[in-house]
Amino acid sequence: MRKVSGLLLASERRAITGLAGLYASRMLGLFMVLPVLALHADDLAGATPLLVGLALGVYGLTQALLQIPFGLLSDRIGRKPVIAGGLALFLLGSVVAALADSIGGVILGRCLQGSGAVAAAIMALLADQTREQVRTAAMATIGLSIGAAFAVAMVLGPLVAARYGLAGIFWFTAGLSLVGLAVLWRLVPPAPRRARHRDVGLDRGQLATILGRLDLWRMDASIFALHLILMAIFVAVPFRLVEAGIIIEQHGWVYLGIMALAFVVMVPLVIVAEKRRRMKAMCLGAIGAITLSLAGLAGLSTGLWALMGWLLVFFTAFNLLEATLPSMLSKLAPAGAKGTAMGLYSTSQFLGAFLGGVLGGALSQQWGLSAVFLGCAMLGVAWLGLMLGMTAPRHLSSEVVALDESHHDDALDTLMARFADVAGVEDVMVVPEERLAYLKVDRQRLDERALAELVAPGKERDGT
């Protein structure tokens, strides 16, 4: 067996750079309003805390409803047309929100922004544009770009709003959409023949299997709760900063310091989780830290430095879970089903964002700011209880093996059994029509030589 070089081709670099930038700019536009909308709602006719929360989270509803249909549509008519259509909807939503003088107009604009649900199509196009042996690194780049977009949005949103108002943020995101369309057609290489990527896209035939797995349900519930809490508290966090004596124009710099320090603290925790195989412990610790920080933000301790400390704890734990939950999901998903598991996971995330905005607004309107944090803390306790029964995920990695022509004469059951007999191979899915075998392997036990003998020389094998 020969391992193909993992060095990126020029076309792959262009595709990864362009699509990561596209994904990040879109998320930047969605997140920039998060730290400022509640503070600027007084300028919008008909605004109430409940409607402000709805405006914050409603993009998640249309995103959740449409991301899978858009992904399937891209299989039929092509990735680029679907992505371009999604960016056009995002542009339209940004313009509608920028021109709005009522909270209803902003809600409509945010609905339209979310309806440009092209995340699945972008990931499928990235898979089309990259070889199997570099695909994991390409997907990781997308993940890093999303994290960076969130951090930048928390800083940039207040700075833009302080100078140009809430409308300025939406005009800025409209401009990002135009840049994204230019990047899509000028920087991203022409799309090759579309293919199914079971570790990226949704496979409807695997839905029943994924929905029947309690361990995967726990991952979906976790990302649902995490983004519900995030969206809910931003109905109240900006007002806590004002109460602490921080003027609105300075909020961006406060978020910058907190996000930067949270990232520094989070990195070694991720390393411990991955390298020392402490995924469950880190997950439970992060949920506990979020719950404790929410109790602190509710007002159980007061003062500027206490507020800064609780926000630091929250964002450190939030970033840790954002990094480790997808990794846990990847380890738990059956061979060849990671894409389907990720599709349901993403849908849960967006639904959490929607319900979080509504819940945060309702609690704030009915009982005040502290009720938002206390309500989310109660959810955190329930979440922690759900995860205590979780079995620690085994540290399995994904392998995609290209089948040689010599395997065509093998019966499917025989071929699967031959792969399963290799030491360290824990799960197998062989797809003859794709000429691929999807494996889950324990790298500490994997018999590399036996696997190499099973795969014909000169064919690709991708370890991810």
3D architecture notes:
- The chain has 464 residues and is mainly alpha-helical.
- 71% of the residues lie in helices and 5% in strands.
- It contains 17 helices and four strands.
- It has helices at residues 10-31, 37-40, 49-77, 79-99, 103-115, 119-129, 132-186, 207-211, 214-233, 237-243, 251-275, 279-300, 304-332, 338-367, 369-388, 412-420, 448-454, and strands at residues 397-402, 425-431, 436-441, 461-463.
- A four-stranded antiparallel sheet has the order 2-3-1-4.
- The radius of gyration is 23 Å and the shape is globular.
- The two termini are 17 Å apart.
- The model is unreliable at 1-5 and 457-464 (pLDDT under 50).
Descriptive terms for the model:
disordered C terminus; 17 helices; 464 residues; 4 strands; disordered N terminus; mainly alpha; four-stranded antiparallel sheet
Spans of at least 5 consecutive residues whose pLDDT stays below 50 are 1-5, 457-464
Alpha-carbon distance between the two ends: 17 Å
> How many helices does DSSP assign?
17
Order of helices and strands: HHHHHHHHHHHHHHHEHEEHE
